[in-house]
User: Fold these one by one.
Assistant:
Number 1:
Amino acid sequence: MAKLIMTADDSASVRQMVAFTLKQNGYDVIEAVDGRDALNKLASQKVDMLLTDLNMPNMDGIGLIKGVRAGTLNKFIPIVMLTTESNDSKKGEGKAAGATGWIVKPFKPEQLIAVIKKVLG
Amino acid sequence: MMEEAVATYREEAGELLAELETSLLELEETPDDNDLINRVFRAMHTIKGSGAMFGFDEIASFTHEVETVFDMVRNGKMTVTKRLLDLTLKSRDHISCLLNAPVGEDVDRSAGDEIIAGLRQLLPQPELPQKGSSEIPSIKLPEVSPDELSNESTWRIRFRPAPNIIMCGTNPISLINELRGLGTAQVVAQFDEIPQLDELVPESCHIYWDIILTTSRGEDAIRDVFIFVEDDCDIKIELIDSSGLIDREEGYKKLGDILVERGDLSPVEMKKVLMLQKRFGELLVEKGIVSPEKVQSALVEQQHVKSVRKERSEAPQQEAAASIRVPAEKLDQLINLVGEMVTVQAHLSQVSLAGGDATFIAISEEVERLTNELRDTALNIRMLPIGSTFSKFKRLVRDLSGELGKEIEMETFGAETELDKTVIEKLNDPLVHIIRNSIDHGIEMPEVRCAAGKSAIGKVYLGAEHSGDSVLITIRDDGAGLDRDAIRAKALERGLLPANSEASDREIYSLIFAPGFSTAAKVTSVSGRGVGMDVVKRGIEGLRGSIGVDSVRGSGTTITLKIPLTLAIIDSLLVKIGKDHFVLPLASVEECVELTREDIKNSHGRNLANVRGAIVPYIPLRQHFGIIEQRPEIEQIVIADIHGTKVGFVVDHVVGEHQTVIKSLGKMYRDVKGVSGATILGDGTVALILDMGTLLQTIELMELSTKGS
């Protein structure tokens, strides 16, 4: 069965690009427009993995990661942060909140897939 | 789909730019509003980040410069001034220009450069921005250099995950599996840190692992596996063996030494235990100095490295015995010498027979036998399996079918069939043409196939098999088949077929090999220009091979190539007309029959012979070559099978079988039709090798033109 991945990003173009890349590589995708939306959806929907942006309105990526790890249904899923910040403080903050890995924007589709394959094992 | 995302990005960036403008104008009113400054920064940041992903590199690099300045403002290192706002507003306009510029068109960069220069002047001097500093790729895709491949090393890895690793979504087992993917790995799990049940936190990871990994990839590849966890986990990677190490002893360290090196056992303890004479590992466990798992892990390492070293020392010897590499020119030279040898041997046989000395004849026959063996062996050396070419075509099929939107699978058989190296090389182009044709014209689009009740996935078969002294190469597709009526109509239109002719299917299909023949309604990038099949035919005939086509409308086309095994030395039939010798390739010769003056008279001027009731047309070579000497009372017809048709060639005498060493003709004779080369006979005279196929063709054409006029 195809793995289900959630992409949470406030930028529609990034969501489209990520969703397109994932679908092309045989994954199923659900989209969320910000942290709040993502957390709401994840409360009732089991996914295999979460890709999240860090800068988002309503609830940012760090908040979303903390929320997922504090929940039950998706508590142990791999979470990859999409971030434009290549500085370590934001990355460290995400890791401390429970992120599994990260990918620095801008990235190429094949880099995204390499990271996803890696964390999904 | 990707274009949609790009369009969405354009829209988004447009909105962000509008927001940026508003924020900048508001900022002019309240220059100290941090919220506004952050908003400006974030807008820039998003435009930059996404821009680079969707191929707007110019926008990304330009915006990066502006963003750097606002990063300073955000951090309180700069203040908002009128000049800064002016430049930023200009930047906004410039980004908008870049965004809306048509793809592939250069935008005036000088405007951008001016703005950047202006912004840089505003920066506090010591902190000049470094261009592109934030564009660090996050994950390196694996790359293996050929150099690394030949250099295997063995690593000892101790991976002690952070207790919360599972809670962060990482499965340690998948990391270990990733390590396994790098080479040969032995893994031993260590359980000694698992706490008592009442203290156990089930969500925490208390196990750690020892991994012995032999890989050709370097330490960086191993570190990359742990990229996301290296900050939290305890990872020790040590090189314990490498093919480059100088002490190439076959064995490996003692168990105690390994444990000491790993820090699991102190040297003092080791000495103490060694004093007792028992198996060292058992003793350690018995005494409770080292846990059984640790001993097990060290033993695994010992075993692993020992076997790696053993393999390494054995492998080169085996390979050396199996094959040697020889430059192709040396082989060609050998074949040439063998060719000369065959010629000289023919001369020797002739002389010995003429002399009639029994001993001499015996020696000559011995030489002949050895020469034949030498010839076969030498030719065999140059034989290569055709499979290597086949795999190239798999790629071709994959790429082309994708390009044309068709789904096509390729199946091959007989990849192990051997052919002369030079023949394989020359086969490449014709095969490409044929396969392209099959894919483009043969296999239909998936919808059409489904409608015809066929599987949506088209199939192309490519196969090779031995048949006598030739190899048959078959290219078959399960596509639409040839359109007999269209080919016939086109042939009539082009005058290739007489208007009232009753041509057989085979004859009609073979018209696709006529120069410039194409029934394709439109020319695609793949084929259809009508320059394919005649080139194919010429290529195959250049190899002294033949080509046949068979097709069933609606279920596919089969093209069969018959290729001689080698180009250097062939078996042939030596014949004589007048004083001249000629050579006919034996592969197509079927039989020889007599032609008497009586027969000629009975056929009323038409060149037809009655062979056991079948009418066979013949070509009097004497007339064709203009040989004037008196013709003998009884002539011989050599009957050959040319592309499935029986044709006779009339000669004076049939001398017998002959080993023909093919010598190519000079440039002057390259375009002479009907002669494919020459050979030197035992007595030193030259005989022409006749190409029966083209000979027949030229004569047919001459007949047609005399009839036409």
Number 2:
Amino acid sequence: MSARPRNDHHCAAGSRRHVTSLLLIATALVGLAASAVGALVTQRLRIQLVSVLTIAACSGGLAVAIEVLRSGRSVVVHTHLLLPLVGFSLDLDRFGALFVAVSAGVAICAMVFRLGYHGHGLSSRTASCVLPLFVTTLLLVPAASSVTTFLFLWELMAIASLLLVLADHRHRSEVAVAAVWYAVMTQAGAAALLVGLVLLSTHAGSQSFSAIADHSAHLPAWVRSTVFVLAVIGFGSKAGMVPLHVWLPRAHPEAPGPVSALMSAAMVNLGVYGIVRLGDGLLGGGPTWWWLMVMALGALSALYGSLHSATSTDLKRLLAYSTTDNVGLMLLGVGASGLFASTGHPALALAALAAALLHMVFHAVFKGSLFLSAGSLQQATGIRDLDRLGGLLGRMPVTGTLFMVGALTIAALPPLCGFVSEWLLLQAMLHGLPSLDPSLAIALPLGVGVLALTGGLTALTFVKAVGIGLLGRARSEPVALAGEVPRSMWIGAGIPAALCLVFGVAPLLVIPAVVEAARTVTASRLPNPFVGGWQVGLSGIHGVLAPGLLAAALTVAVTLVAGIRRALQRSALRSTEAWGCGRELQTARMEYTATSFGEPLSRVFEDVLSPSHDLDISHVAESRYYVEAATFHTSLEDAFERHGFRPAAAALAWWGGLARRVPNGSVHRYLAFGLIALVVVLVVLG
Amino acid sequence: MTAQWPAVSVVAISLLQVMTVALGGPLLVGLMRKVRCRLEGRVGPPIHQPLLDLRKLARRERTRPDQAGWVFSAAPVVLVATTLVVAVTAPLLATDPAFANSTDLFAVVYLLLVGSVAIALAALDTGTSFGGMGASRAMTIGALSEPALLVALLALSVPAHSSNVPIIIARSLAHPAWLATPQRLLALVAFLIVIVAESGRLPVDNPSTHLELTMIHEAMVLEYAGADLALVKLGEGMRLAVLLGLFADLFIPWGIATAPGAGHLALGLVATGAKVAVLGAALAAFEVSVAKLRLFRVPELVAGAFVLAVLAVISALVVA
Amino acid sequence: MYLSTMRLSTLIRRWRTHPTDIPLAGTASPAVGEAARRNRGSLQLRHVDAGSCNGCELEIASIFSPVFDAERFGIRLEASPRHVDGLLVTGPVTRNMADPLRKTLDAVPRPRVVVAVGDCARNCGVFAGAYGVEGSVADVVPVDVEISGCPPDPATIITALRGLAGT
């Protein structure tokens, strides 16, 4: 195994680099060791040991990533020990390091959280072995620097995550169904990637990323376009991009809490990573239509995801759809960036890409806190259905507050970090507007419209999630009896929740790193497109955002108003029964549910969502004027699943059934097949 | 933004704006009620009636439903506080209040959204069916009107090359011809519809309804009493004043103080006050003459505003 | 547009108003005086129909008409008991409405006033002794102001309410 600096100019930097390379290797080895420990150690020690080792590996990864982001010197590791013939090569540059840092951060929180999380089959031997492996691949995929290494790690990540989704399959049958969907979508995506990358490397004559990047400009246009389209399909399926998102709303709810957090806050990012790495990095940008396609898919994902999350009643399904929504926003930014680059606005391209990456980082932060605290809620109540939750903020004040912080952040409310990244995305698109290029003139206003519409829908979604899930009255027995979860789960979900506020007040902690990452992947030498200091904005544009000032102003205003209210108060706050028009009993059954909350919206967007209602009324035997029982069932299926994938799967099954008639077990028939095949071959060759 | 304004005047402007909005909001509500009453053939309460109501409410007992938690108590404070922050930073009387550099149109929209979200959450926290119903309806309408507002603002930002409000106003004053361009007029209509929807006026919502089932905004605040209710009412009035003030400044900017000095500021105060009063009176006259829309017709209205706003952006690009 | 020229002229004609003069109340009870000092020109009430024949409702509706226009004295009816200073109760209290009436009063922030409007609310009127009647309003909740009449005429109601509003 060799860890060699690529071009060491002076000794100090060289030795430092050596250390980071070794640290990266150590990270991978500790991760693998954690995996081995998970497989070998008895159940009592397993959880703690595996978590501690994985956290150690992630800390190493985080340290390497931060060092790379800080210094800009990439870390190169090459070994022939692992993959025979081609070798295993890693090269972590700033762009990859950003993703490693995000994955490592999410994984640390998830593993701390995991210490208190039980159930869901996550403590089994297989799951304990696979979880560290999954985390390790998350850390290594952005460092892969050759086609084989990348595909190997990518596939390992897919299989590991699949096994984790399956963790609880013994207890719930839905898990297996979800896992089949996930397996099919992720393998189909991997197949598209395999074809695309092999095509690319054969035409470029090398499988190393740097060589491909050097040659890609000379490749024929059809190869470049085919590779890009295949990559969008392959990476898009991993990112949960519509229409390849169907696995996401199935797998996330069934996966254990920390695993959903890892998948949603870290793994889907790698889909975006792949599209940017390939489109901007390896292929060095492309024609306008590539990016219009990415923008269109991003806009579709954002709208479709936000609409479905606004009408979902399953808490984790809601979060899964909101991941699709946010991936859509990232792709919107990535697409806008490519569009700017291809129409000759490199500065704006850099700004849009950096804004998209910033949204990626912040999405990991708030989605991490949301999925982890949702996991706590689920552990405490055993319920994911919002219609049966409620009143949890009083019963689980810490977890409830953490979830609420995440929810307010994702709704892009100032002074939390979601607002900053959405604002920058808006600004980046806005300032491309006075352009004469027709593709920009059409795509950008629509992009801003989509951003605005998803913003409104997300606010509605998370008012629903918090208001129905955490506030009001408890709607079921287990919820009424729920109590707080172990402290490690507070810490795990609390770190990202705290970061929501910290990054919201001081986004400059992240922005330089994000800009450097964007510059690295686009090989741009342009200056930082953002205004520095405590203010955020695009340089060259008058008008900035001062998030710290905003937060301070809000704090002062809230203190002032609350103080005035307190000063005016003459008597103590009286707690009374809620006003119910003088009715006898106010029960939780009279509360609005998540279904009823989302009903107006699903009516407004009936054409898109096509909800199905089923009302069944049975009458008493004596008279049909008296109702004995009425059951109402309403469901909202995914349109792409119902009209696209299910018919496709049915057609495949039909085709498979046809084919099965051919081999009926008769030896004579097989001999005849052989003869026919031989004759055909001879005829063709002759 | 040509000359540097002295720090003292900047602070003075912001303080004046806060006081104007805090007093002017309730007075605007009173004025609109007065106009309505007169058009209905009634004398109506005095214009300062909302202030009398607030004075009384501030000292009354506060109550809280037994199921509700801190969210319920915090929401009115958040509603007023966010509107106050907007009142400090938005150029309502002069083009350069404190932090004018960071007065972004989108930031204003999202700050106001914080208040709406807080009230909707508080409504759900009461655990009543009315609260849930109001929150659901308000958020549905908000989810559709917010994009219309953002896109309408975008149409204003395009010619100014900035979404910073003082810049837009300064550049509009420098190029009065902009104000008659098609994109301005389209954006104006979209903005007006959004103001009506966001502030819960007819034909979207009836602020003086007594029937719970037809309520949107009122249904959310049914549980508030005393100082909390006073804050909610104050917040509503301030929001309406801020929205109309912004509307006045963006579409009819003349009169706003563009240079420091007490004279300019007094002129700005009078001009903005007059513009907002006229707009409020016109809105009230419009309210008298329309019926409330059915709830499921409201999205059509708001979607219409969205389409107008998109048209505004597209025509802005054609002109640019 | 909704606002046609014809409607505009109607609206302008209506601008001239002709409200009836309402006499001020003579002597006030201590409870009324206290309420007036508290309210100082702003009075909101929640109306509770405890079992009325709807005669009083008609009169209450007409106090907000252009002719009597109680709103000019700062008097309004509100939907939520949380938003009000007291209750405006009409009719004898029926058995089914006794508890809702108590609950409504409990929902009103303190201090609060109860106004019994009409003879039925004061002493059950013609419904006295009926099987479904629990009693007068004062039998169920403490009453501060009574307005007599079957039904009381709007000017009388407004006079009593002006006393409470302090206008």
